[in-house]
Amino acid sequence: MTEVRRAGAGPASLWERDEEVATITRAVDTLCADRSSPGTLLEARGEAGVGKTALLAETRRIAEARGCTVWSARGGETLRSVPFNVVRQLLQPALVSMLPEEAREYLGDWYDIAGPALGIADPGERQADPQGVCDGLVAAVRRLSRREWPLVLLIDDAHWADQETLRWLAALAERLDETSVLVVIARRPGDVSGDSARHLDAATAVGRPLAPLNALTPDATAGLTRATLGAHAEAAFCREVWAVTGGNPYETVELLAKVQDSELQPVEAEAAELRALNRSARGGGLVARLEQLGVDSTRFAWAAAILGGGITVDMVARLATLDRADAARCAELLRGARILSVPEATAGQPGAGELEFVHPLIATAVYNSIPDALRTAMHGIAAQLVADSGLGAAAASRHLLQVYPDDDQEVVAQLREAAREHLAVGAPDAARRCLERALQEPPLPESHARVLFELGCATLLTAPATTIGHLRTALAMPGLDGEQRVDAVFRLSQALLHNDQLEEAVRTVEAEAARNPDPSARLRLQAAQYMWEGIHAGETSSPHRSARLAELAATCTGRDNAERALLILRGFDAMTHGESAEEVVELCDRALVNGRLAPGLGWTDTEWGLELPMMLASSYAYADRLDRAEALFTEALRAYESAGWSGGHLSLAHAYVGLGHRRRGRLREAEQSLRESLRIAERVGRGLPLYWSAICNLIDTLLARGHVEEARTVADQYGFAPPYPSTIVLPDPRPVRGRLLLATGRTEEGVNELEAAEKAAAARGRHNPVVVPWATELARALATEDPGRAARLATDARRQAERFGTDTAIGEALRCAAALETGQRAVRLAAQAVTYLEASPCQYEHAAARVEYGIAARSAAELNRGLALAESCGADGLAARAREALAVMGHAD
């Protein structure tokens, strides 16, 4: 006969779970064997009652027997709207057991980012970045896993975990290779949808599924029946147990407990009673059994179901309007009836309750048995009790979400406060739910627009299309006046920008500026208009835009941020148009306060956004003031990392740090920064402007390094091809793609791409030969086929470079001119290029000029100098070219 249970098995629900237990045992042993072992995620999946919880309990027993630290948490069907609920259950106890300074030291820079989400630190004043908080929670596990090794994390009912926890779980799963921890989760198939399903599926896709948890076989059910009731249980009785329960382990255990309570004999003659007993353990039968315990016990169970978690006798007594003694008596009755139980190991878990439901199926049945109107009323009372307990509006909000709208302005105020608390800890979806519910109340007419505005701000980073609708509705209503209306219009334009509706963003601020009578507000709106126009990469430029901007900026002294913004915009416009670099730097300097970004214009300030400081730093970068550009790029990176902004902002910061390295000639460092930028951009979403910044700069850097095939692979993998984004990308992607096509032998396509870059630059008036170097690239490509046109292009490029006036621009134009010449004319031009580029901060271009001069002059000394520079830059292709030329000259190493 087949063995149906493992020898020495503990809980009854572990029957026929040998394979799963063996897999768990191996995973625990692997974790314990090596402190540096990679982490593992195991998934137990099965329908309700098939023994998932028992399997997690067995995991705890195995792990603790081997000296592991084990932390556990459980999702709750009525608690899914509580952000970070499950991850708090897991990590909070360990952190609050430390002294505050110890926890701060342990989490380091992540304390202020992840601490508020875990409930161990007060939130900051700004809206927290959800991705940054998620990364902070992953870092917390990574650090705690080193402190508590070997560490095992158990998550039961993961399908009911809150969305923020599931996002963290997916991120942790991605980093398990560097986190020595065992994670075991139990979940039902289905029962989760939307983003939560996506996050949970992403986590489990990285992990290893245990064998599917199926119902018990008839033989196993018979064995379990005899182990519980005695070996004398008759075969017909055992078969009926299996037929009644379908082999569901939970229902089998509960039915056998009822058999024991009723003193039913396990014989064939009594088997007919099993169905009635089984009905009393579930659904309507459970409710009837609950009612038999009395009105007070029913009210107690209802109140416990409303609370969902943190069930204490005192809180239930207040919610059920019972005195303390009666409540304690009800708790004992419900424990005796196997409806409630005392949770294991609650000591040291803040917020943990004294009681919990024996099984989620019971909790669901009790909750659903509460009459609808009474359930709603009890949620309202629970919200007040939670608020009165000092737990805050966010904790009370899950109850307020269940209350019927009733024109209650106090509820509106509580939900708005809850939204602010949710945003401060990095839970914008929870904030959105609170504000959407506040609008249903509804707010008073004079505050309705402000609630819509707050909702728009809450969804700006996660759902720009939704934000657009909210803000447009708010602006069409009374209630937004003065500075707040200007803020709303600016946020609307930002949302339009993020939704790739840049032309509409420009029209929005332009129209509001035209009708706003306040000069300071109008100036800010005009600055926003010029900002969006300045980053627009469309084919046509608004008539006389640059002249109007120059005229307006000429009146600005930099006395406030609106004037400073206009100075930055004018400097950026002058830089892209190839006007005097000295004037560009002078305009940018005037926009600073004591050499630094003014308060309100910083990288993490939301009034203006990141576009202005990016424009400022880019203007310095292309005007050969790389010292100032790099200082700003590094400041951005530090600001976003310390603030925990690890989404699109951090991706752009890494991209621009990479741009700084690329301009400086540190190609290895540039590639490293740009690959990190692309990694983060992948997480944010493909197709966004920040994605293009990472890819374009990475391909440009790989080409400079001479890694042509790798550049082509990146381009193919990430779709580096038209159509291009509506926002400007630095450097311009068309010349970069044209150079890639030429380097891979697709000459005709490369020439066509460069000619398209010529037309686009002419339409926008962007004549800076460093930002949009189409002319020099096209001249080189046409040198043989059409030398006359190539010469004209080189001459025009030199004229534009001299107009801009930087050593880099002039040196690069001279390099191009030298490449089109032969003999002494080529040598003289190459020597001039070296002179200019030696004074430039761009070392790669200097190295290229040295190598080209050495080849033209047949100078081994110059080639060796160029080779040394190329090697220091990481320009492998250029270094190989120099070595080849030296070998031809007989000077090979």
From TrEMBL:
The protein's name in its UniProt record: AAA family ATPase
Species this chain originates from: Streptomyces violaceorubidus
Domain Orc1-like AAA ATPase: 16-184
Keywords: ATP-binding, Nucleotide-binding
InterPro entries: AAA_16, P-loop_NTPase, TPR-like_helical_dom_sf
A Pfam family it matches: AAA_16
Top-level division of the source organism's lineage: Bacteria
